[in-house]
Amino acid sequence: MKPGHSETIQAQFDAQAQAYLQSAVHAAGPDLRHARELVAACAMKGELLDAGCGAGHLSFTLAPLAARVTALDPSPNMLATVAEAAVQRGYAHLRTVQAQSESMPFNDGHFDIVASRYSAHHWRDLPAALKEMRRVLKPGGRMLMIDIEGCEDALVDTHLQTMEVLRDRSHVRDRSPSEWERLLLQAGFTDIEHRSWPTRLEFNSWVERMRTSGERVAMLRTLQREAPEEIRKALAIESDGSFTATTGLWWARA
Ligand SMILES: C[S@@+](CC[C@H](N)C(=O)[O-])C[C@H]1O[C@@H](n2cnc3c(N)ncnc32)[C@H](O)[C@@H]1O
After folding, report:
1. Closest-CA residue to 58 (of 87, 77, 82)
2. Minimal CA–CA distance to 114: which of 69, 56, 65?
């Protein structure tokens, strides 16, 4: 039998924990600045959850603003990397929890802020995960979601999602802004704010980070080479395969 989605996630991310800790795209970016500003403006200093923490860049950015940080991820190696880096940075108030966002081992209303960055496009059941995020938030608590956006234009979106899944077989879906709005409302979030900006993905590091096979890189090259002009323009595909996607940030209230 072939491995299921959860096994694929673990295989993909367990092997790449150090690569994510070192990744320039993940260690920096305007999203971390936005996240810091939004959370600081709440002036809560409360319980903060980072769902799909990966190597912990969002957790580390927000740790000085929280009384306690819970870094959650299904990948044991990612969690070990986060725990070690937290010690090095002196964040004794950071704990790690192995779980998936769709089913979180926390009581209702435990957190003041639930955040997630560049992880939701891997989640098998995003509607269930958003309901969990709302469940574990205190009433009035804040949800911060950051992820690569899908495109409203179906032609462009099909190419973007195909590139994503060729590069990483654990990809599920980049949601478009209208999908996010609908899913957040369905999960019961209110006061939804959205902002977005372009994010350039440098081809070689993008595929290396996921250890994309040579066969898949060749398929990506063919897909890009044969893409119609609308795709090349919308995704700003460059001669070396680098391209520009959109990062979206959602800030909402439980
Ligand atoms: C790109 S990394 C996250 C990067 C990280 N949040 C940061 O700020 O740098 C994606 C992470 O999502 C995790 N993940 C995959 N499926 C998940 C799920 N269902 N629930 C929570 N995390 C999940 C993966 O194990 C991986 O560590």
Report:
1. 82
2. 69
Cα of 122 vs its chain's centroid, Å: 8
Residue 230 lies in a domain: no
Q: Supply the DSSP symbol for 175.
A: P
> Would 136 be classed as within a structural domain?
yes
- pTM equals 0.95
Q: Residue 123 sits in which domain range? A: 5-151+171-201+245-253
Ligand 1: distance of its center to the CA of 228 in Å? 32
* CB 230, CB 236: distance < 8 Å: no
Per-residue pLDDT tens over the stretch 64-112 = 999 999 999 999 999 999 999 999 999 999 999 999 999 999 999 999 9
Mutate to test the pocket of ligand 1, among 25, 79, 122 (most ligand atoms within 8 A of CB): 122
List the beta strands (DSSP E) in 86-155: 94-98, 111-117, 137-148
Q: Cα separations (Å) of 224 from 29, 156, 186, 237? A: 26, 12, 35, 8
Ordered strands of the 68-73 beta sheet:
94-98, 68-73, 47-51, 111-117, 137-148, 243-253, 190-201
